[in-house]
Design brief:
Order of helices and strands of chain A: HHHHHH
Largest sheet of chain B: none
Strand content of chain B: under 5%
Number of domains of chain B: 2
Radius of gyration of chain B: 17 Å
Distance between the termini of chain A: 51 Å
Number of domains of chain A: 1
Largest sheet of chain A: none
Number of strands of chain A: 0
Structural class of chain B: mainly alpha
Oligomer: heterodimer
Structural class of chain A: mainly alpha
Number of helices of chain B: 6
Helix content of chain B: over 70%
Number of strands of chain B: 0
Strand content of chain A: under 5%
Order of helices and strands of chain B: HHHHHH
Shape of chain A: globular
Helix content of chain A: over 70%
Largest interface: A-B, 109 and 110 residues
Shape of chain B: globular
Radius of gyration of chain A: 18 Å
Chain lengths: ~140, ~130
Amino acid sequence: MTLIVLLLGLAVGVLVGLLGIGGGVVLVPALVYLLHMDQHLAQGTSLFILLPPVGLGALREYWKRGQVDLRAGILCALGMLVGGYFGGLIAVPIASRNLKGLFGCFLILAAFLLWRKPQAENRTIESSSDGSAHG
Amino acid sequence: MGQPMGDGPIRDAGIFGAACLCGIASGLFGIGGGTLLVPFLALFFAFGQHRAQGTSLIALIPPTGALAFYAYAKAGYISWHTGLLLIPGVFVGGMLGGWLAKRLQPRRMRQVFAGLMLALGVWEAAAAWGR
């Protein structure tokens, strides 16, 4: 069991570095299905894991290549701190079953956003090469 | 919105507002928030993919989920043991992933991952409300 948990952490970490995400999206369902946790417990544990700077190792690689906007990063951190407080307040009283369903809907939305990104990337490249404004 | 914004208070306010939304999702679903933050930065603020990911990672360095975590901890929704076991793996894996991202065009990878999340999302919603 301990080995499974350690390997799960490693697998989630690779996604963190590769996709620049927190990892909770994968962690929560993994905790629910592999370790049979309740939805609330899985989400709380996921938040606990994300407290220390687990992405620091991944960040180093991006930082070395100057692919970090520090100012935007600080603003995002502040916004997420504030937003997180309200999100937590909303989540705790929701029934576990409904929370699980909402989480599923969120995953579907996130999947679409993730799929969309390559198109945005192409648009950015196009607009910077021909210099035309869009939107 | 599609037009890249220059530096300025409007852009800053926009980024802060978008991050607040990500924070609500973060607290509500117990996730880091990067899943939303990366596409937001890329779509609305004209960040390149790698830059969006790097910025998302730096935004996740401070404990942005601390207040949400507090709400869960108060309600007893934390498995400390499992959490402590997972932290070192996520850290080491993150270094590996960051190194890999330099070498891969992660587009295909992202699409596979998006497909996986879609399937997982449908499964979760169906499992919760389907019966």
